[in-house]
Amino acid sequence: MENKIVLFSNIKGGVGKTSLCALFATYLSEQGIPVIALDADLQASLYRHRQREIDVDSDAQIPWGVELLNTSDTEGLQATLSKIKSVPGVVLIDCPGNLNDKNLAMLYSAADIAVIPLSFDPDTVDATGIFVKAMKTISQARLVFVPNRISVSEGKAEELRQRAQTTEFLGLVGTVTPRIKQSVVIKRYTTLYPLERTQTTAIEGAFNKIMNEMEIR
After folding, report:
1. I want to staple 47 with a disulfide (CB 3.0 to 4.6 A). Which of 21, 39, 59, 194 is the partner?
2. What is this structure's pTM?
3. In angstroms, rounded to a whole number, what is the distance separating the alpha carbons of residues 75 and 51?
4. Cα 29 → chain centroid
């Protein structure tokens, strides 16, 4: 299979980068697509989540690998990026929620796709705009925006207008997926076990759109 490098990134924290990265890895794996995840976040949330699950169930079958990626080690990062570009499958990278590390530019420039989770509150929209401008200066990656943790309530007319305006703008610079509604099943992600039916229902619209951008059928 052709190599694809996919980042999950945004400079705004709390938008669900790690949970969506894990769910997408499982979604791909369940469709027979080779996938590995690299945790480049200083908090190492994805990696630690996997370790906790293995501690509880050491006999569980590992569906996809998770490795730490140290972005502060320039030479090591260059060597790793060189290796992953030859991986016959999809490499997912859970990125830090900042732009302070100069070496992150190497990740962004190596990516084929940047998946950018967001919500529609003003702070997140503003931060996402800043992130997009930065990405455009250093990367040719396709941008895929995933409205995540979106309330199912309709909201006020002005909120709906701003949401539509934001979606229209994002559509000019990338692809906007169907929204992922706010739900406990998304927070209850696992790195070891199959997706629950409710999880698949919640994410498949957005994830199929990402796969289309990756040109995976």
Report:
1. 39
2. 0.95
3. 27
4. 15
Residue 26: Cβ-neighbour burial (10 angstroms; 0-12, 13-18, 19+): buried
How many beta carbons lie within 10 A of that of residue 176, not counting itself?
22
Nearest Cα neighbor of 176 from 140, 132, 143 is 143
10-19 pLDDT per residue, tens: 998 889 999 9
| Confidence at residue 1, expressed as pLDDT on a 0 to 100 scale | 77
8 A C-beta contact, residue 175 and residue 145 = yes
pLDDT at 154: 55
Residue with tokens 């990656």: 141
The structure tokens listed for 151 are: 């309330």
Asked if residue 63 has pLDDT above 70, the reply is yes
Q: Which contiguous run of DSSP H or E holds residue 34?
A: none
Instruction: Please report where in the chains the tokens 């990125």 appear, as a residue.
Output: 95
Q: At 166, list the tokens.
A: 């934001």
The H or E element containing residue 172 is: helix 157-173
Count of CB atoms within 10 A of residue 199's CB?
19
Task: Please list the alpha-helical segments (H only) found in 17-112.
Answer: 17-30, 45-56, 74-84, 104-110
According to DSSP, the residues that pair with 113 across neighbouring strands are 6, 142
Q: Report how far residue 196's alpha carbon sits from residue 208's, in angstroms, rounded to the nearest whole number.
A: 17
Q: Return the residue matching tokens 């996809």.
A: 64
Whether 158 has a pLDDT exceeding 80, the answer reads no
